[in-house]
Amino acid sequence: MVKPRLKRHGKKQRTYRIVAIDTQSRREGKCIEEVGFYNPRKEQTQLDLSTIAALLRQGAQSTATVRDILKRAKVPEQIGLNL
């Protein structure tokens, strides 16, 4: 099963990439696809809406943290899905 979840990134690992990754892979393992970026210090979020919508329509279950990030960015209303 594929899940959108956070992967640490950066020199001091203070930023995150939102990636589509197999549930049995480790967090820093090889990802299937990168679908966004999240910086909690500056509250910056960059998302690829079409890819995220395709993943969620295919049955991917996002983690709680990614779900909260998507809700703050109002993604469910834009793509017409319930999270």
TrEMBL record:
Pfam family, one: Ribosomal_S16
Keywords linked to the UniProt accession: Chloroplast, Plastid, Ribonucleoprotein, Ribosomal protein
Keyword tRNA-binding: no
Subcellular location: Plastid, Chloroplast
Listed GO biological process terms: mitochondrial translation
Keyword Ribosomal protein tagged: yes
SUPFAM superfamilies: Ribosomal protein S16 (SSF54565)
Coiled-coil regions listed in the entry: none
Primary subcellular site in the record, as a coarse category: plastid
One GO CC term, this protein: chloroplast
Family indicated by similarity: Belongs to the bacterial ribosomal protein bS16 family.
NCBIfam families for the chain: S16
Protein name in UniProt: Small ribosomal subunit protein bS16c
Lineage: Eukaryota, Viridiplantae, Streptophyta, Embryophyta, Tracheophyta
Gene behind the chain: rps16
